[in-house]
Design goal:
Blueprint lengths: L1 H51 L5 H9 L7 E5 L6 E5 L9 E8 L5 E4 L18
Antiparallel strand pairs: 1-2, 2-3, 3-4
Length: about 130
């Protein structure tokens, strides 16, 4: 009889450890999916800047945003004339404000560096991405 109780207790402890780890992994995967859209917008913005030598106007910014699939889990905006990208991610189980602000810094030859100053998104979510450099 004691073996069954011990096995049950061990299973309960394992579940207590595994479930939060899985939920954390699931939250990171969902954020990564949303950030992939931000990366796509960055690429579109870089191509626009290289082609036009400037950042998009309000109408052009809306056109760029309209090419993204959208998921309903993130509000994504592109500031006209500056190219600053704002992404507010809404995911259950992922705490915090989850605001990502990416500001381009154009360099020579069309190269753009990206600053993430002012972001409240957990930096752990940005580690695997190339959103900021």
């Amino acid at each position: 009889a004691m073996g069954g109780v011990g096995t049950l207790a061990s299973a309960g402890i394992a579940a207590a450890v595994a479930i939060p780890a899985f939920e954390d992994y699931q939250g990171k995967a969902e954020i990564a999916t949303e950030l992939a859209q931000v990366e796509q917008l960055q690429q579109e913005l870089i191509m626009f800047y290289v082609d036009q030598g400037r950042f998009p106007t309000a109408e052009e910014a809306q056109n760029l945003l309209s090419t993204l699939p959208g998921s309903g889990k993130m509000d994504l905006s592109l500031e006209p004339d500056t190219g600053s990208i704002n992404a507010q991610v809404y995911l259950p189980g992922v705490g915090g404000n989850n605001l990502l602000i990416i500001t381009p810094r154009p360099g020579d030859g069309g190269y753009i560096d990206w600053d993430c100053e002012g972001s409240t998104l957990d930096p752990a979510h940005l580690e695997a991405s190339m959103l900021c450099n």
